[in-house]
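Hey, I was hoping to borrow your eyes for a little while. I've been puzzling over a protein and I'd love to understand its fold better. The fold is given in discrete form, as structure tokens running alongside the sequence. I'd be grateful if you could look everything over and explain what you see. No rush at all, and the record is pasted right below.
>
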Amino acid sequence: MQLERLAPGQFSLNGIVNFDNAVEVESEGRKLLEKDIGSGGVLRVSLANLLKGDSSTLSVCLSWIRLAQEKGGHLCLSDMPEELAALARVCGVEPILQESTCS
């Protein structure tokens, strides 16, 4: 699993994010995202290549959203798998993720 920088402000979350690797994914992703946050613009993270996610994946995404907000930017998510969206509804974080959905 990795967060890959596709272009300035555009990223793709690839592979599997679960309890075994979520801390590492969040930390490595944070370092990568911080390089592009400075402008206060929008960071776009595609979840199209996410092979498997669980509640730890939601936690990673929420952490990155908070990071962007703290730095005066905005992080939006696109291509969220339906199973992850369903989990967000069950966990009560769907409104936060909807505010962070790319248009």
